[in-house]
Amino acid sequence: MMVIRPIEARDFPALVRFACESGHGFTSLPKNELRSWQEEHAA
């Protein structure tokens, strides 16, 4: 059984890296918006 948890602030560095490395068309994650959100919510 796979358990999936909601994303947390500590997950954003990996999420941004995934969005950048996955290439065009693989994900619809907006790289710039993710980086902006990460910078605004950095602890």
Provide a quick synopsis of the model.
The protein is mostly helical. The chain contains two helices and no strands. The N and C termini lie far apart (33 Å).
Structure explained in plain terms:
47% of the residues lie in helices and 0% in strands. The protein is mainly alpha-helical. It has one domain (9-40). Helix 1 runs antiparallel to helix 2 (31-40). It is flat, with a radius of gyration of 12 Å.
Series of H and E elements = HH
What is the rounded distance between the termini? 33 Å
Count of beta strands: 0
Mean of all residue-level pLDDT scores: 75
Low-confidence stretches: none
Cα Rg: 12 Å
How many helices in DSSP terms? 2
Assembly form of the protein: single chain
Strand proportion, as a percent range, falls in under 5%
Tell me about the largest β-sheet: none
- Count of discrete domains: 1
Class computed from helices, strands and strand pairing: mainly alpha
Which descriptor suits the 3D outline?
flat
Helix % is 40-55%
GO molecular function: arginine N-succinyltransferase activity
Enzyme class: transferase
EC number: 2.3.1.109
Keywords: Acyltransferase, Transferase
